[in-house]
Amino acid sequence: MNQGPKLSKRRFLLLTGSVLLLAGCQSENKAIAKEQRPEVIHPNDACHLCGMTIQNFPGPKGQLYERGNNKCLKFCCTRDMFAYWLDPEHRHNIQGAFVHDMSKTHWQKPSDQLYIDARRAIYVVGHNRKGALGPTLASFSNRDASHEFMKNFGGEVYIFSEISEHLI
Ligand code: ZN
User: Is 74 part of a structural domain of the chain?
Assistant: First the structure.
């Protein structure tokens, strides 16, 4: 009979323990997420997917970080970034994700300073400007710029959640 309170006290301690543990992991994860920022593309940086030298190509680049990891994965184009990201093996393990904002930078040589959160970007798919490996996704911070681009170069506008493997 009098074991009841003891048991619930133990359970309470177990619960608080796991909550604290969880909070600890989350704050560590948040600290890492803070350090996950777009990096400068160096002359020898190779695409994490195809291995080609990133700086040799025009068009928007992509950068990804895996959960709890500060190693920046750089991609020669947004297409290769999505091909990696949408792979079922990686899909749920991507934390930080960045693409160039093509409403503010040049297609031929996008600026290292002009990246945006890939999940908030608007994409034009199926246009006729060339990326590293032919067709790529043009990424924009705002809808007006994406529509302007679509008028000039064709394609269709998509938001991040609409990007799927069959578009890539
Ligand atoms: Zn590549």
Answer: yes
